[in-house]
Design brief:
mainly alpha
Length: about 120
């Protein structure tokens, strides 16, 4: 099923917005599930979503991956430095990296089904 390019942009911008909120909200977003390390699901998901939707838009995987890796590391430092109720966690960074890798992989597997035919990627 081909998706109009504008809708892919909406999905990408939405994924970035959710990622920024999830990483930089003054308090950790979402309910406390009572499950140890449940926040890793959120970290994985928000980075994978940006990687998948960026790949569908034919962003260079190398540059997209590099930008997301830098953002993953910087977000942990920024949380520790500027958000008093948040703390950077190396395990979150590792989970972000796994989300990026899986997101790029899934994006490549599904790009031909999703991206418009006029796409040159």
């Amino acid at each position: 099923m081909r998706v109009p390019r504008w809708l892919l942009w909406v999905a990408f911008i939405g994924a970035v917005a959710v990622q920024l909120y999830g990483l930089y909200a003054p308090d950790a977003p979402g309910p406390d599930a009572g499950i140890p390390h449940f926040d890793k699901v959120g970290h994985f998901s928000i980075f994978a979503a940006v990687a998948v939707t960026g790949t569908w838009l034919c962003f260079s995987s190398w540059w997209l991956g590099l930008a997301l890796v830098i953002h993953a590391g910087a977000s942990e430092v920024l949380q520790t430095a500027f958000l008093p109720h948040r703390a950077g966690d190396p395990a979150d960074f590792v989970t972000d990296l796994i989300g990026i890798a899986v997101g790029l992989w899934v994006g490549h597997l599904t790009r031909r089904m999703v991206a418009p035919r006029t796409s040159d990627c």
